[in-house]
Amino acid sequence: FYMFYYVYVLKSVKDGSIYVGANHDLRARFLLHNKGRVHSTRSKMPWKIVYYEAFISKEDAFSREASLKLHAQGLRRLKERLQNSL
Hints:
Layout: E1 5-12, E2 18-23, H1 26-34, E3 47-55, H2 58-70, H3 72-81
Antiparallel strand pairs: 1-2, 1-3
Helix pairs in contact: 2-3
């Protein structure tokens, strides 16, 4: 049995902005985002999940999150793949 770690992309229903995050419990974290319990996303609620990736390795998941947040090219490529979802 594996514990999975998730990298996820949220889209604000309010203004269409995008948020990238990582966590081991995607459902619980998503609920926290939409209950206003995550400071960085509180002002743009509600959110919907538009994409996620699952990893067995915590390090791989958080490395991927950092890559999407810190390197514009990685996020740009993901947005190109998700153009109909975003």
